[in-house]
Amino acid sequence: TKKKVIFSGAQPTGVLTLGNYLGAIQNWKSFEDTYNCLYSIVDLHSLTVRNNPKEFKNACLSLLAQYLACGLNPDKNTIFFQSHVPQHSELAWILNCNTYMGELNRMTQFKDKSAQHKDNINAGLFTYPALQAADILLYQTNLVPVGQDQKQHLELARDIAIRFNNNYGETFTIPEIYTPKMGAKIMSLQQPEQKMSKSDENPNGTILILDEEKRLTKKMKKAVTDNEGVIRYRDEQPGVKNLITIYSKLTELSVEEIENKYDGKGYGHLKVDLAEIVTDTFRPIQEAYANYMDDLSYLEKIYTEGALKAQDLAEDTMKKVRKNIGL
Ligand code: ADP
Ligand code: NA
């Protein structure tokens, strides 16, 4: 039988965070044997913020090297730059014409981002979810592994697909969303009520997969906790809860095992151990990353092959779309 399709991506807006790693990339890898997986570097999405063109090109290559360093196998997955498959933009326009202003107006990410970037509230920022729907629907995707923050966009993608199929006949597979049970929303170490994000302005809130040991340990030690003085996994202690979540995801110890291990111990103890666990996880990734970044011709081979494979699949869907809407 034909393998089911997975699509997901991340924006080349900087180095991947521990949140991206636990909420998304780690799961992507777990699917590579059983699904037909497409993992994109969604460069077009990043044009919604102003980039320095030279740095941007490098950020795109860097993210590709980060994907590979995190263990995504290019022989098992299709890894490509979104902009190399022009069908993404073509379908995005068509979906824009089948998406209501009211739907886009309800998107909390648009509200958050336009509040953050008042000087650049562009149309792309507003229609971002239609491009994201195009990314997914273009490949007849069955499953989309993402963090919690993408749930609302994914529900909109489903609504758009269902409406399109009703209006123009069966065209798109309706995608399901996959979020991990734990780690779907890793919080900022400085503001545990806010998600950890690569675009966070407070660098101490975010652990990056390329942070060296000293820097990482410093950030971990500064992590905001509380005055309770007990290491418990509960909503009243969001900072501690977040640390336990990260700990559990990286060691596969259960929450209870961690609570027992640190019974009667202080936050400092937990933080130092956790810094070591995170460092050990990222060390091999950092070594692999350096090697990939030294081999630009290899990276070029990966993204060129990825684009060809993705274009083939995308064009199959676009033929159907164009025919069904009378183009
Ligand atoms: P960012 O907000 O860090 O720029 P992206 O928009 O590039 O991240 O998202 C890449 C993937 O990582 C998405 O699937 C997203 O849901 C996931 N993700 C982002 N931040 C977190 C987080 N703090 N915890 C868990 N998953 C996250
Ligand atoms: Na995001």
UniProtKB/TrEMBL annotation:
**Main location group:** cytoplasm
Provide any one GO MF term from the record: tryptophan-tRNA ligase activity
Q: What is one GO cellular-component annotation here?
A: cytosol
List the CDD domains hit by this protein, alphabetically: TrpRS_core
Where do we find the motif 'KMSKS' region here?
A: 195-199
**Assembly and interactions?**
Homodimer.
Family of this protein = Belongs to the class-I aminoacyl-tRNA synthetase family.
Q: Would you tell me the protein name for this molecule? A: Tryptophan--tRNA ligase
Q: Which organism is it from?
A: Proteinivorax hydrogeniformans
